[in-house]
Amino acid sequence: MASKSYLILGTVLLLSAMVLQYKSDTQLANNHSSWMLKYNKQYYSVLEQEYRRQVFEQNVKFIEETNQKQNDFVLEINEHADLTSEEFSIQYLHYDHQFSNEQTTKQQIKENNLNQEINWSKYAGGVKNQGQCASYIFQTLDLLDANNKIINNNYNQLSQQDLIDCSGSYGNKGCQGGFVSNTLNYVKDKGLAYEKDYPTTSTSGICKNVQRSFHISNYITISNCEDLIKALTNSTVTVAVDASSWQFYKSGILTQCGTSLNHGALLIGIKNDGVWTLKNTWGSSWGEQGFIRLGAGNTCGLCKYGLQQVF
Questions:
Q1: pLDDT tens-place string over residues 38-49
Q2: Could you tell me the residue ranges of all domains in the chain?
Q3: What is the CATH number of domain 87-310?
Q4: How far is the C-alpha of 57 from the C-alpha of 33, rounded, in Å?
Q5: Which of 28, 220, 240, 311 could form a disulfide bond with 105, CB atoms 3.0-4.6 angstroms apart?
């Protein structure tokens, strides 16, 4: 009699688990459909949609499990939720950096008070979305636009299209990839047009002969946290980071990441407790309205390679 009762109980529990799993799977499928509508996602075939749904569901589970832990940051289901980490890396994390022909110029970094909070956010400007374009262009523009405001009180927007069309002779390949250092060398030698003189288009084009009124005299490289803070007291700094763990970042202080440099962002501030604030290039719907906070020190490798222009 007892064994029969256990059998019935076991059957009921199994059926209940199956019902709950069915509801969970159905809910995830419905969530994916809603998510597709929200982000206007379209797939080429039924097979691709099924594959993306499975990736989406795996990412949702990862996000939920991570958020259940006692972390200082929160993840969310964002527009990247149907990409595996490998696919995300291929699409967004193709940062190029080079160290040859560059020298860190420590004597050009002014010695300022390092015990004060630094915040250049009001000069950072609107958050751009690099899409399928390499980040070096947006990094360079964010750096120069912000520091032109800080140092020269000049709020005229610089030309993105000038960099895409005209810096190829310095080793860049438009949206396909390039180096921030190459781009700064181009600006140092040739100057840079303002947006009003060289408007942005949707594609790469032939380099135009226009007035290039903006100039820099040089730039410095930075390779440790102490010099990075010193440089930041003067103006913003573009830095290389490991953004492999940034895919689903929503808010808070991210502390869990590697140090293999694969992305670039604009460093705009540091708190008294050492927490960094950076401006990203994945649109304002990502993270904290396009920004991210990182834990103190060399978190995500941000102290390993930085660049700052000299006017």
A1: 999 999 999 999
A2: 2-70, 87-310
A3: 3.90.70.10
A4: 11
A5: 220
